[in-house]
Write the C-alpha cells for this entry.
Amino acid sequence: MFQKILIANRGEIACRVIRTARRMGVATVAVYSDADAGALHVELADEAVHIGPAAAAESYLKGDVIIAAAQQAGAQAIHPGYGFLSENPAFVAAVEAAGLRFIGPSSQAINAMGLKDAAKRLMQEAGVPVVPGYHGEQQSAEFLAGAAAEIGYPVLIKARAGGGGKGMRKVDAPSDFVAALESAQREAASSFGDDRVLIEKFVTSPRHIEVQVFGDDHGDAVHLFERDCSLQRRHQKVIEEAPAPGMTTEMREAMGAAAVRAAKAIGYSGAGTVEFIVDGSDGLRPDRFYFMEMNTRLQVEHPVTEAVLGLDLVEWQLRVAAGERLPVRQSELRLDGWAFEARLYAEDAAAGFLPATGRLLALDLPETLARIDSGVRSGDEISPFYDPMIAKIIAHGPSRAAALGRLRAALAASRVVGTVTNLRFLEALAAHEGFARGEVDTGVIDRDLAALTASPEPTKLTLALAGLAALGLLAPKPAEPGWADPFAARSGWRAWAPASLATTFSRGEERLSIRATLRNDGGYEIETPLGAARFAILTQEVRGGGPRLRVRIEDNGTTRDLDADVILLPGAVEVRADGGAVRFDIPDPLAPEDSGDAAGDRIAAPMPGVIKAVFVVAGAEVSKGQALAVLEAMKMEHTLAAPRDGVVAETAASVGDQVEEGELLLALAPAE
C-alpha cells in the first residue's frame, strides 16, 4: 500500500478521498489555487501545495505543476478525483512517465472511452447495444443537419469528448438545429478543447441507468449493480438512487454483463461507470437499453452504491492501484436496502438553475439523519471559478420508501444561509408523487418544473413570523452574565396598555402589512392579510442565520404546536414552516423609493463570466424571450433573453469580454 498520495482535485471529492486515506493510514497531499487557500480540503490534508491562480486552467488543470508538487512532497501516487484531469490520458501518461502511479485506469483505457463516437464503435464490436446515430468525422453544420433529419427528430447533439451534460443539446425540430449545434460546439470547445459532436436519436421515455464496474490489473472485473440517475436538469444529475426502481433480475443481469464486457474489452482497471440510456416506455426490458458512454473515473454519485453494498470504493481504488486483486467475486455481492443522493448546489432553480455565488454565513447539515459529503463549511466562499456544489446528502434505508423518507427528513433539517441554493427544489422533488411511486424518467423535472420551483403561498404562521422578524422581536441578543439589559430586546412592553407594533414587507409585487399586539402572557395577537390569530413562542434556539422556534398558534378554536425556522437575510427573511419555505423582502425605510425608471431595460450579467456570443446589434428589433447573448459561467452556458419587446439601444459587451456580476451587457430603448 502507498505511504503518501497526492489528490489532484479540490472540494468535496478531495475531502472524501482524504477521509478514506486517513482511515487506511495513508498520508495525503492537497493542492490548492489562490481561491482555495483556506479551503476545507487544505485543512484536512497532512500537507498542501499551492499550484497557481484561481482559474482552473492556471491551477487544477496544470498537469505538469501537479506532478511536480507530487514529486516535491514525496507522494507515490496521484488520485484525480473527478472532473479536471481525471479523464485526461495525456496527464495519466505523464504521471506514469514521472515514476508515479495514477489511481485510476490506464491512459489506453481512457483513450478508448474518451471519445464517444470511437467508444460506441468499440462497444458494438464487444456486443454492447448502442443508440442509433451518427458518430463519424464529418462535422459541417449542413451534413450534421442532414444526419439528424435521417435519424429522425427529436435528436440529441452530444460533445464527443467529456461529460457532465456539457456540450449536449436536445433538438425537437429542424429549424432549431443550427443554433443548438453552435451552442453545443462552443460549450464543448470551452470545456474539453474539442468542438466535435455526434448526433443520436433521442429515446422516448428515457431513463438514465448506469452500472458501476471495477477492474484490476490481473484481468478480473465485476459490476456493483446499478444506479438510476434519471432525475436530471440540463442533462446534469440531481437525485440518484440505487437500485433502480422497477429493475428485474433479468434486466440487471443483462446490463451488468454488458457493463463487464465493456470494461474487459479495454482491459479496465479501477473504478468506472458504464452509462446506459433505457427506453422505459414499456417497463424495463433487456432489449431496450443502449450504451451511452463510459466514465473512466469515480462518479459523483458513488456513495449510493457504497450505501447499498457496505463498501468503500475509494479504498478499492487505492488497493487496486497498489496492485492488489479485487477483494470480492461477483457471486459474493449482495444488495442491502435502498439509497438516495441529492446534490445541494448554490444555484437558483426558479431562474433556470443559474449558478450562484456568496459566502456561507451558516451551513447546518443533518449528519445524524444522513451521510453528508461536503467540501465547504460555514464561512467559506462559493466562488465563480468552480462547480457550485455545496454538499451531497445521502440517505439509506431498508426499503425505497424508508430511504426516501430519510432523505426528505434530512433535506427539511438542512439550513444554508448566505447564497441562493436548490434546497427548496430538492425538497419539492423528493416529495413529487410520481417520483415516490418510482415513476422516473429524464423528462420529469422539465415537465413539472413550474410546480417544483413554485414558492408556496404564505400562511398565517409564516406571515406572523416574518412580521415578528421584521419588527426585531425574534432571537434577542443574550445579555452579559450577571445582568439583564432591559433594552436588549424589543418586547413591546408598555406601562398602561399592550403595545401594538406594525410593519410592512413584500412578496414579489405584493405589499403585506402585519400588526402585532403583545399579550400579558408574553404571546401576541397578530393581524395578517389572511386574518388574525394568537401566537406564542414556546422555545427559541439561536442558530446561525436565524432562530429555530417552537410556536403555538390558536386559530378558529384550534391550537397547534409547530416547529419553524426563521432565516434572516440581508433585506429579507425566509420562514420555513407549515411544510414550505416562503421568502419575504423587508424594505429599508431609509432607502430611496424606486423611481420605476428603465431598470427593466438593462440586461446585466447575473454573475461573473465570459461573453461567448452576442446575437443582436444596436437598432435591432427584438421580441420578449428572444436570445440576446450567451454568458459562460461556472463551466456552463447561460442564455440572456429580452425582458420585453423593443429595440436594442446599446450593446456594451463583446464576445470574449470578461464581465462582473451586475455589469451592463445590453440596453433596450425606453418603452413608449
About this structure: Confidence is low (pLDDT under 50) at residues 594-598. Residues 249-265 form the longest helix (17 residues). The chain has 17 helices and 39 strands.
